[in-house]
Amino acid sequence: MTLLDDKINQHFASLVVRKDLVKAVKGNAIVPTYVLEYLLGQYCATNDEATIQTGIDTVREILRKHYVHRNEAGLVRSTIKEKGRHKVIDRISVSLNDKDDVYEAEFANLGIKKVLIDSGTVKSHQKLLVGGVWCIADLEYEYTEDKSASPWILASLKPIQISRFDLDGYLEARRQFSTDEWIDLLIQSIGFNPQMFGKRNKLLQLIRLIPFCERNYNLIELGPKGTGKSHVYSEFSPHGILISGGEVTVPKLFVHNGTGKLGLVGYWDVVAFDEFAGKQKRVDKALVDIMKNYMANKSFSRGVETLGAEASMVFVGNTDHTVPYMLKHSDLFDPLPEKFHDSAFLDRIHSYIPGWEVDVIRAEMFSAGYGFVVDYLAEILRSLRSHDYSDRYKALFTLGDDISTRDRDGINKTFSGLMKLLFPDGQAGDAEIEEVLRCAIEGRKRVKDQLLRIDATYPEVRFAYSDAAGQQRLVHTLEEDEYPHQYHRRVAVDDSAEAIAGAQGASAAVEPSQGVPAVEQPPRSKTTDNPLKEQHLVFQENQRGVSFDSLFGAYLAGAKRIVVTDPYLRMFHQLRNLMELMETVSKLHGPEDEVAVHVVTVEDEFNGDRQTENLQKIADACATVGIQFTWAYDTSGTKHDRDITTDHGWKIVLSRGLDVFQRFELNDTFNFANRLQQHRQCKEFNVTYVRL
Hints:
The chain is of the alpha/beta class and about 700 residues long. It contains 25 helices and 24 strands. The strands form 6 sheets. A 7-stranded mixed beta sheet has the order 18-24-23-22-19-20-21. It has a 5-stranded antiparallel beta sheet with strand order 4-3-2-5-6. Strands 8-9-12-7-13 form a 5-stranded parallel beta sheet. A hairpin with a 4-residue loop joins β3 and β4. α17 (about 405-420) packs antiparallel against α18 (about 430-455). The protein is globular and about 100 Å long. It comes from Pigmentiphaga daeguensis.
């Protein structure tokens, strides 16, 4: 186990489980993660390997004997008949038979209906009435000659959820972890390996959890397929329900005016709409109008009566085009159905997760470490819904005056949710609070900036905040920094301007809006101003468009000797970066010229032979293209510099050395990130160019 795993088991004994065990026991059982982890939490919540193996065997046996597979439903019904009584794990829903004045249960996989269930059980677990709940139930069979009576008898029923939790103990244990350790614990609890994600990507994953701890929170995430957008809402919590965007109706979601039956928002903490995107989808205009009112006012009407609810709404869907394409031709809400592509509806959304920044899920991204039993964390987050952390930044920072009330609500709710996740005890430093605030502002800014493109009547907003000293700081979205000329187009206004420009034969490019000054914007890839100058460039995590050619090319051109100093050239991907730097060098001189490159690094303590072998391979390859490549291991133990120096007067200081790109699939030949650096996502880093 890692040191973090040891710490997790020390402070959350019996409340955590090793996340790779879920795959080990799931097999072909189509059962939610929280059901499996409920069982694993009963038998495998330990770090003793022998006990874990015994627990796995026990859980497998329970699933084998009691989980109902649809294709084995007949066999299970026969078992109940022959034995008279049998325990089953199934999804159970309940409806009211108003003719006989009784409640009747239906077992989804077992395929039996009209099983009588007492009113007390239904009152205790009202979600049985809407959508159904996974339960462990004792079923009995007793034949009767009464044709109207069911032979099935429900002896007992227990929803699969944690029985109790100690919020004060949770808050006290949180204080034993650093912020980075706590974030990694939460990422492992979701099921991912935190070592595979940067800080920004971890926060994007955690924003998905805000609807579980924040009431009436409206979130949207649009991005490529396969990034795990809907996973959290289907597998993470028994308090959330995931439905297809095309399957919902007004009665199902809100209330049936005829029967008075309350819909999904009345029973679930989170209602998530999967596959929400799709321009051709048919959408009920009445549903959109009611959703607008509910998302803004937390209420909806049933005839003359107005009802309130606390359910958060989440919309997830796939994008059909790249970000620059959407920014050039429409907006970042482009994939939505036409009736939802409505400024009044979109203005109710509190935050927009940029799904294109989230990497496609690969096998190595899953965690083998310890994380919370998801049902335990789900109950903790549910209890935090009654707390409000939205004012925790106000003693330190003040939002800009031109940020509207609705924008402030979105920022405050996102800030409150992230604080509950990261600092539930409220003990956060000033810099940590500022980081959370910037993240919250960015999520709402992404929504509002797109509204400016859709509806010309919206006034421009300068998303900024001030510290206690009165210093104002602007917030930018990452795509704003990557594509500044496309990002600030006002589509509703600029189309006519482009038509005029096109008629005149001029470029249709539109300059960035004057309402948002272009300051504090790290350039995408243009670092080679002519003449060359000393400068300091900052690049954000997940930024694309960066390459060694654009970073270093102009400053290395003409050099006859180059010295690269980087103590971290050990792992395969780090040495691949070095080889790609040699590719850049090879482009800068003709075949008749030669250039000497000397590398100073530190020998790998455990795999020095492999490191030496790979460096020699680079040297052999360089010799064929006129590069005299040499290297030396620094043995002083004091070399921490990361820079590139040239014999013609330039020093390039690198905050991260050459390791500026995030992980990508090295073995996938059919992947542009593998072949072209500008298609890779970056880590956060900075570069300083100094004239010697």
